[in-house]
Write a structure and sequence with these properties.
With 513 residues, this protein is of the alpha/beta class. The protein is built from 18 helices and 18 strands. The chain is globular and about 75 Å long. The longest helix has 17 residues, at 352-368. Strand 6, helix 6 (148-161) and strand 7 (165-170) form a beta-alpha-beta unit. Helix 7 packs parallel to helix 8 (210-219). The structure holds 3-methyl-2-oxobutanoic acid and zinc ion. Residues 14, 99, 139, 141, 169, 171, 202, 204, 511 line the site of 3-methyl-2-oxobutanoic acid.
């Protein structure tokens, strides 16, 4: 019988810690539903004690999700653990994930605690959590750079207190595959009660080895849970990519001999949803989910693939969900067809009024663009005008003029709360002029860190443009995403979306602060 490898997705927690990737409760819920369709084993929905917003998001996800365990992160103290338990209460299957740093560097410089204090805190926190749940994961933060002798003591004790999963984070992405695998194996061999817990890997990608390290942790170290994120989203260089580890284990079953429960046909839709929600664009040559991952440009390769696919293809595009990229609706589609497609895509609108608003926008789009793809529908429902009547800034209209030899001009109408503004400005180009016009009224003073345009669907110029704008202000970094067949309009929408995020001042505690 083959062994089972558990997939623990932390897109909504560790992925969200990426600067600018923070998500609203509704956005998190939509991604959680896609993760449910993807059939991951565990969804880390957030860090309940970090903010009221995250508490509510964890609670909503715990109530909505069936068939996957919903998890909340918690620092190793009673308050955080109680908050996590409260947020998870009523969920079908739930887990509390406690973390505490164990490397000398972190204990000394960050926590300012002695080894004995950390040991006691770890022990008491798991003991406390054991009164609230039977599914407890413990992570010694910066575990890979911790003294193994100290880890033997801490981990043996937390298992004895009731931890059921032991996760070994390579928090700073310092590991190399063979050494990380051996590190895990040594821990499992030296800790007498190690067989009472599932061992897990959690690798960051600072040296580009998160996937390789995770797989070595499984193959050499005997781990049976991988922590990962969609598109490898995460702080700095990100986390281990879900799509890459899952497809590695599935494609090389001959080598790993492991079973994963993930429905791979949901990988590309999940990748798209996360990218459209966070504004973190997927690079074209990214394994499995990049636009070029299955494109054969060279004549020799094309010829080979036409004669026999497996000459140059080790996976089939449709097996990871690329076939969902098809025309789904058009100008003549009715409200019921639209509503049905929303349902199939896992999009739940709050009310009939929201559906009507989205349908009206769909009709507008179908008048301007003959073929509507799933990606267009996702972009449309993510658009401020439909989703967020409650948002402070809302796009109304835009006019711009650009002509060779003349300085471009734009005039933008938008609402700020109840007040409508119209502002005009010049700029280096029509996009620059539009954003300057908005800024002339809003006066946010935010610094722009990133501006990028992407075609939502195929490379054709008929595609909608999706613009991401990343702003920084007062120590906060936010991303705004806007989509429209007109990229100047998409840019204005993205800018307003980013301003809305700056406007909602949600304070949160950093998980690795
Ligand atoms: O990278 C890390 O150490 C973490 C822990 C909180 C598990 O994300
Ligand atoms: Zn992490």
């Amino acid at each position: 019988m083959t062994d089972r490898l558990f997939i623990f997705d932390t897109t909504l927690r560790d992925g969200e810690q990426s600067p600018g990737a923070s998500m609203t409760k509704d956005e998190k819920l939509r991604i959680a539903r896609q993760l449910e369709r993807l059939k991951v084993d565990v969804i880390e929905a957030g860090f309940a004690a970090s903010s009221n917003g995250d508490f509510e998001a964890v609670r909503a996800i715990a109530h909505a999700i069936k068939g996957a365990t919903v998890c909340s992160l918690a620092r190793a103290n009673d308050r955080d653990i109680s908050r996590a338990a409260d947020a998870l209460m009523g969920g079908e299957s739930t887990r509390i994930h406690i973390f505490l740093a164990t490397s000398d560097l972190h204990m000394e410089k960050k926590l300012r605690m002695t080894r004995e204090q950390v040991f006691e805190q770890a022990r008491l926190s798991v003991r406390f959590a054991r009164n609230l749940t039977s599914d407890i994961e413990f992570s010694p933060e910066d575990g890979y750079r911790s003294d193994p002798e100290f880890l033997y003591r801490v981990l043996e004790t937390v298992i004895a207190e009731g931890a059921t999963t032991i996760n070994i984070p390579d928090t700073v992405g310092y590991a190399v595959p063979e050494l990380y695998g051996e590190f895990l194996l040594d821990l499992r061999q030296r800790i007498p009660n190690s067989d009472k817990a599932v061992w897990s890997v959690h690798c960051h990608n600072d040296l580009g080895m998160a996937v390789a390290n995770s797989l070595a942790g499984v193959k050499i170290g005997g781990a049976r849970q991988i922590e990962c994120t969609i598109n490898g989203l995460g702080e700095r260089a990100g986390n281990c990519s879900l799509e890459e580890v899952v497809m590695a284990v599935k494609t090389r079953k001959d080598y790993f001999g492991l079973e994963v429960g993930v429905d791979a046909t949901q990988i590309v839709p999940a990748s798209r949803l996360v990218s459209q929600t966070t504004g973190f664009v997927v690079q074209p040559n990214k394994a499995v989910v990049g636009a070029n991952a299955f494109a054969h440009a060279s004549g020799i390769h094309q010829d080979g693939v036409l004669k026999a696919r497996d000459t140059y293809e080790i996976m089939r595009a449709e097996d990871v969900g690329w076939s969902t990229n098809r025309i789904v609706l058009g100008k003549l589609s009715g409200r019921n067809a639209f509503k049905q497609r929303l349902k199939e895509l896992g999009i739940e609108m709050q009310s009939e009024a929201d559906i009507n608003a989205a349908f009206a926008r769909f009709k507008e789009l179908a008048d301007r663009k003959s073929d509507i793809f799933d990606e267009d529908i996702l972009a449309l429902v993510m658009d401020e005008a439909v989703l967020a009547e409650h948002e402070h800034y809302r796009f109304i209209s835009l006019a711009q003029h650009s002509e060779t030899g003349a300085r471009p001009q734009a005039s933008v109408a938008f609402a700020a709360g109840e007040v409508e503004h119209r502002a005009t400005s010049e700029g280096n180009g029509p996009v620059d002029a539009s954003l300057k016009a908005i800024e002339s009224k809003v006066a946010s003073g935010a610094e722009m860190l990133l501006y990028s345009v992407n075609a939502i669907t195929s490379g054709s110029t008929e595609s909608q443009g999706e613009v991401t704008v990343r702003l920084q202000h007062g120590g906060r970094v936010v991303n705004g995403v806007g989509a429209d067949p007109d990229i100047v309009v998409a840019s204005a929408k993205a800018y307003l979306a980013a301003l809305n995020k700056l406007h909602s001042k949600t304070e949160r505690v950093a998980a690795q602060g």
